[in-house]
Amino acid sequence: MQVPFLDLKVQYQSIKTDVDAAIQKVIDNTAFILGESVANFEQNFAKAHNAKYCIGVSSGTDGNHLATWSLGIKPGDEVIIPANTFIATAWGATLCGATPIMVDCHPDNYNLDPEKVEAAITPKTKAIVAVHLYGQPADMDKLREIANQHNLFLIEDAAQAHLAEYNGEKVGGLSTAASFSFYPGKNLGAYGEAGAVLTNDDQLANNLKMLREHGQSEKYCHQSFGHNYRMEGIQGAVLGVKLKYLDKWTEGRRRVAAKYKELLSDIDTIRLPIEMPYAKHVYHLFVIQVNGSNGKDTRDKLQKFLGENGVATGLHYPIPLHQQNCFSYLGYKEGDFPVTEQLATTGLSLPMFPELSDDKIQYVSEKLKEFFVN
Ligand SMILES: *Cc1c(COP(=O)(O)O)cnc(C)c1O
Questions:
Q1: What is the Cα–Cα distance from 70 to 290, expressed in whole angstroms?
Q2: The pLDDT of residue 128
Q3: Which residues form the domain of 287?
Q4: How far away, in angstroms, is 326 Cα from ligand 1 center?
Q5: I want to staple 312 with a disulfide (CB 3.0 to 4.6 A). Which of 5, 21, 24, 159 is the partner?
């Protein structure tokens, strides 16, 4: 049996008629940049996350940059980010000329560990970026308390967490500015590059709209430096169709996660993802950890074994940010963030997408058991 890590084709087939018509409409109207399809999507996406404004942009990375840029973060400033995240989280700070300051993750939820954030704060710190990694919200109440205490901005990187909830409230409206990615493989994926920034702040929303489009308040009137970070009309149209199914697809991911947990719970050698009491996890990824002193070796062998048996897996992320060459100037070294490093060497992401069938989940689980029995 072949089990792909992700299958975007099966989802496209299920919505083909609607998506094709929506794309054709954009072309018929030659509304290629922003326009009605993007404006409609922005409105609905903001509503889905209980946020006042949504600014559609050209990628999640651009959203990360816009969020920090719109808050006036500049060279000399420091921005606290988790060491355990995708690299684009860090670009928000670096593209503003600021310094990303890394903090280890919590061993239960793999997100920014609030206990360790406080020690990383200096007089130069301007913001904390909470990443809701793998689809589980970071501990927002604790992070907000720290941010308020030190007068810092709290930003969310919700690229992996569309519709996730923290204490019953949707992510994206829980901070000053929140960025989302619609990279095709994300929980809500465009048919190309796209992203968004959510905010509840009127002035910040205006600022974000200006920066997205050359710093202009109206056509050819440029109030500040800016960039071209606009969302394409076709992406707005595709996202508009797909947003209607996102609740259903999120439940699909949660079904897959529950099934894995049921079938894998008796393997002592692995640690399954924990859904925190405050969280509604949306399982962008289902990351297990291999226990034991030779965890890395076992993880690598397990990945190979699964691959030989037709099961595709992933590593998220094999080299933590503080160990990336691009950040060698920050002077971090191995051992600085043990929880993150442990996850990088012993974590393994199993196939996860809403349409993953029970028999395939069963097959993956049997192969895992087979590996650990031998
Ligand atoms: C995917 C991702 C991004 C970047 O999004 P793109 O749309 O690919 O630019 C940023 N942060 C995190 C945590 C991500 O997973």
A1: 41
A2: 98
A3: 246-373
A4: 18
A5: 5
Note whether residue 3 is domain-resident: no
User: Cα–Cα distance between 350 and 44 in angstroms, integer?
Assistant: 31
Nearest to 141 by CA among 112, 99, 181, 161: 112
Structure tokens at 290: 């291999």
Identify the bridge partners of residue 177 per DSSP, sorted by sequence position: 155
Residues with Cβ within 6 A of ligand 1? 59-61, 64, 85-86, 88-89, 131, 157, 159-160, 181, 183, 195
Percent of the chain with pLDDT over 90: 99
In the prediction, which pLDDT does 314 show? 98
Beta-bridge partner residues of 82? 103
Tokens of 298: 């076992």
Q: Is the pLDDT of residue 374 over 80?
A: no
Contact between 244 and 238 (Cβ < 8 Å): no
CATH at residue 308: 3.90.1150.10
- Considering the domain architecture, whether residues 31 and 180 belong to the same structural domain is answered as yes
Residue nearest to atom 5 of ligand 1 (CA): 60
What's the mean pLDDT when you consider all of the chain? 98
Q: Tell me, in angstroms, the distance from the centre of ligand 1 to residue 263's CA.
A: 30
CA 254 to chain centre: 16
Ligand 1 centroid – CA 181 distance (Å): 5
> Does residue 45 share a domain with residue 160?
yes
Give residue-wise pLDDT tens across range 201-241. Answer: 999 999 999 999 999 999 999 999 999 999 999 999 999 99
pTM of the model: 0.98
| 170: Cα separation from own chain's centroid | 14
- Residue among 117, 131, 70, 130 at smallest CA distance from 95: 70
Count Cβ atoms below 10 Å from residue 345 Cβ, excluding itself. Answer: 18
What does the alpha-carbon distance between residue 302 and residue 285 come to, in Å, rounded to a whole number?
Answer: 18
Total count of domains within the chain: 2
pLDDT in the model for residue 293: 82
Side chain identity at 23, as an amino acid letter? I
Q: Which residue has the higher pLDDT, 347 or 293?
A: 347
Q: Are residues 302 and 190 in the same domain?
A: no
Which of 183, 231, 321 to probe ligand 1 with, by most ligand atoms within 8 A of CB? 183
